[in-house]
Amino acid sequence: MKHNMGTADRIIRTLLAAAVGVLIFTGKLSGIAAVILSVFAVIFVLTSFVGNCPLYTLLGIKTCRCEQDTHRKHGENAAT
Asked: In Å, what is the CA distance from 26 to each residue of 12, 41, 44, 52, 63?
């Protein structure tokens, strides 16, 4: 599975998930909003861990420079 998430993207997702967790455990967030946001938080943590977001794949978004760095290492043009 190829990575399509950069380091900053992964850190931001992890921090957002942690913030949701703190809000839920402190009682600031409850009810249906807590359930919905906790589902998103779990998804954010999982995608951050594996470095691949299925939605990014569907939309053709890449926030990492993984392929560009590989092309540069081999002396190829990163635009191809």
From this structure: 21, 16, 20, 30, 33
Task: Outline where 1-78 has alpha helix (H).
Answer: 7-25, 32-50, 54-59, 66-73
Rounded to two decimals, the pTM is 0.76
**What letter does residue 80 receive in the DSSP assignment?**
-
Instruction: Please check whether residue 3 is in contact with residue 64, taking contact to mean a CB–CB distance below 8 angstroms.
Output: yes
Tens of pLDDT along 39-64?
Answer: 999 999 999 999 999 999 899 989 98
* 10 HSE (CA, 13 A, CB side): 14
Q: In this structure, are residues 67 and 3 in contact, taking their beta carbons and an 8 Å threshold? A: no
Residue that is written with structure tokens 């420079």 in the block: 65
Q: Which residues lie closer than 8 Å to 42 by C-beta, 6 or more apart? A: 17
